[in-house]
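Onboarding guide, step 5: your first structure request.
Type a short instruction followed by the sequence, for example:

Predict the 3D structure of this protein.
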Amino acid sequence: MLKVEHLSYEVEEEGKRQEILTDISFEVKDGEMLVVTGPNGGGKSTIAKLMMGLYEANQGKIYLDGQDISSLSIHERAKAGIGFAFQQPPRFKGMTVRRLLSLAAGTELPKHICCGLLSRVGLCAEEYLDREVDGTLSGGEMKRIEIATVLVKKHKLCIFDEPEAGIDLWSFAMLVDEFEKIHKNKKESLLLISHQERIIRMADRIMIIDNGKIKKIGPTEELLPELTEETMSRPYCMME
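The system replies with structure tokens like these:
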């Protein structure tokens, strides 16, 4: 279980302190799917990066299965069981897709396993295994490859930052199926940041973030009717 207590984060810009998140507290239970949504610029992605250790909170604590991971590095949090998929995945010139998947798995993966992973995220495997993870891949291709690196092994908690961004409707439907499978097995917790109605409806609970604060958090059936077009949109097609 993930437990977050009184998390705050601020940055300094032009000599002035700007608060990005204020007193954020929530939990993600074992096997639960929590979807974080809200207006753009509200702090959703910042929460995800704080969970993974990409940013360091100014105040507050983060616990995973009762262990205080607040001071752990990204590598240590990954070893503890957190998987993370960026909204805009990084690129690695000179590294092949197959090598990236093997690094994520922690062992050299055979070809058929890599192909299976790529197929799960809507890519024609044979065409991608030996391609470099660089600028020759589109944003949508990069997003799907990175999601495959999270699916390659079991985690206590999987964090996906707007997994629907930059992919076509067919691939989006495949990803939703994968999330449904993970959720149904109840072996991993899911924290998804999304504006998409189909993903939001899958959640056990919804957390609405606005202006760096938790506006509301509660069961999906209670909060879904309150969501507006500003915080939620229907699945779209964005070909890349």
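Each response can be followed by summary notes, for example: The radius of gyration is 18 Å.
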